[in-house]
Amino acid sequence: MQKKMDKVVASLLRNDNDLVQSKGDLINLASLIEAEAKDNFEKYTISSVFYNRIEKGMKLQSDPTILYYKNLKSKIKTRKIFKKDLLSDNPWNTYTRKGLPLTAICSPGLSALDAAINPRKTNFLYFVADGNGGHRFSDNYKEHLVNIKLWKDKLRKSNEIK
């Protein structure tokens, strides 16, 4: 399995990519993409958001990095993130640190690896779950806040139905 991963990563690495400078960078970025998106089509758009944020000097702010550290040594796994988790600095926290996390947060598949090296060209800087297994993307913070509200409203309604 390791030999196959090495071969795939080596075939994807290029010298013309400023963000992905090494095998480790590629796997780390691809792991964020893998953890964020289940839809292969969306992986390329999510990759573009990460590239755009880094280009602008923004933090990646990827929730799965928070969950990775929170669950790293916990016997009881959680999917809940609280404000204190976002503020708790650690080598994987992409809310407190710029750039890629210390290590990969999961094992990325081929589509995430390809998306990490070949992001879609967009102006998007933000994304949030849409409540249907996908994401809403935006290129400004105001629109992002509207998308967050839509997600919270959908979540609230689904909890009322139960």
Q: Helix and strand layout, with pairings?
A:
Blueprint: H1 2-12, H2 23-36, H3 40-55, H4 63-72, H5 83-87, H6 110-117, E1 126-129, E2 135-138, H7 141-161
Antiparallel strand pairs: 1-2
List keywords for this structure.
mainly alpha, Double Stranded RNA Binding Domain, two-stranded antiparallel sheet, 7 helices
Describe this structure in words.
By secondary structure, this protein is mainly alpha-helical. The protein folds into two domains: 2-121, no CATH class; 125-162, Classic Zinc Finger (Double Stranded RNA Binding Domain, 2-Layer Sandwich), CATH 3.30.160. The chain has seven helices and two strands, in the order ααααααββα. The chain has helices at 2-12, 23-36, 40-55, 63-72, 83-87, 110-117, 141-161, and strands at residues 126-129, 135-138. Strands 1-2 form a two-stranded antiparallel ribbon. Helix 2 (23-36) crosses helix 6. The protein is globular. The N and C termini lie far apart (42 Å). The model has no long low-confidence stretch (mean pLDDT 91).
Sum this structure up briefly.
The protein has about 160 residues and is mainly α. The protein has helices at about 1-10, 25-35, 40-55, 65-70, 85, 110-115, 140-160, and strands spanning about 125-130, 135-140.
| Overall mean confidence score, pLDDT | 91
Q: State the order of secondary-structure elements, H for helix, E for strand.
A: HHHHHHEEH
Helix/strand class: mainly alpha
Largest sheet: 2 strands, antiparallel
Termini gap: 42 Å
Spatial extent as radius of gyration? 16 Å
* Low-pLDDT stretches: none
Give, in spatial order, the strands making up the sheet with the most strands: 1-2
> Count of helical segments?
7
State the helical fraction: 40-55%
Assign an overall shape: globular
Please indicate the percent range of residues in DSSP E strands (runs of 2 or more).
under 5%
